[in-house]
Design a protein that fits this description.
The complex is a heterodimer of chains A (112) and B (112). Chain A has no helices and 11 strands. With 112 residues, chain A is an all-beta fold. Chain B starts with a strand and ends with a strand. The chains are: A mainly beta (112), B mainly beta (112).
Amino acid sequence: RKEVEQDPGPFNVPEGATVAFNCTYSNSASQSFFWYRQDCRKEPKLLMSVYSSGNEDGRFTAQLNRASQYISLLIRDSKLSDSATYLCVVNVLDQAGTALIFGKGTTLSVSS
Amino acid sequence: NAGVTQTPKFQVLKTGQSMTLQCAQDMNHNSMYWYRQDPGMGLRLIYYSASEGTTDKGEVPNGYNVSRLNKREFSLRLESAAPSQTSVYFCASLKGRDYGYTFGSGTRLTVV
């Protein structure tokens, strides 16, 4: 089983739409969770951390369900500038330290 | 500008040639990482260094070596480049378990 699995893309939505991405992870010991955004041919950039109680940053809402090992990202009122690939990321902690494991990403295309 | 600096940005190698990808961060982070990103494969961890003086293998270490020269610098070496190593390479550093990575802008490597 892949450590981090995401919805297959691409998601094609009109401006103003609400879109949700889902992600599951296999390591129940994971403690930290993130959503990253990656634009074409650019480096990934941290969009938001995901907390157990859920958290919101403007039009973006992230949720975590530890029991189901499930993470979600909701984008409301989509903008053209939201077009990108969204990466679900979880940490893995072992004796050597912390490393982040990335999902393959879900591509979002917002059209006018 | 503060952050993670990677050099070079682009490189073309012939099969069998060697080269070193350089990475430096000025954020005083302990942990540094090298990832490669291939179409359809997502980001895969090559090597990481939890602290100065330590290095550990990630998911795809074969064909690579690393050196954590000091707290700031973490280099990735290809001793004998192969076409399968054609990829985009990202270096990253981590402030701590509950924080996300800061990525460099990437090195686009082509091996012919």
